[in-house]
Design goal:
Elements lengths: L9 H4 L3 H22 L3 H8 L4 H4 L1 H23 L4 H17 L7
């Protein structure tokens, strides 16, 4: 008796393997694109934030990787736990953006 290997029925899930591969490729390319846009602007960014040593500017690249990693750990975990509840996930993303990006900004004068 020949047994068949279990396969994913794409008609039930609505996604294909090609779609998944393209989505993952696009997500990975966003990180490379963000680094490529940051590199030419390291010196002007360093001048605007007041760094004195040029090697301190390179910490921006490290912060991008840490931010992307912690964002996936925090929000990705909540999205899985809460069974992909869209409204709650969007609320958490807004709160994350508010706490880590808006509140540390200096007051506008």
């Amino acid at each position: 008796m020949i047994s068949k290997k279990p396969s994913i029925d794409t008609k039930k899930t609505g996604t294909s393997q090609l779609e998944f591969i393209l989505l993952m490729a696009c997500l990975m390319s966003i990180v490379a694109l963000s680094i490529d846009t940051l590199l030419p602007a390291l010196k002007p960014i360093g001048l605007s934030i007041g760094t004195t040593n040029a090697s301190e500017n390179q910490l921006l690249i490290t912060m991008i990787f840490l931010g992307l990693g912690f964002g996936q750990l925090i929000l990705g975990h909540y999205q899985i736990v809460l069974e992909e509840n869209l409204l709650f996930t969007l609320g958490l993303q807004y709160l994350y953006w508010l706490v880590f990006y808006v509140l540390p900004l200096p007051a506008w004068k």
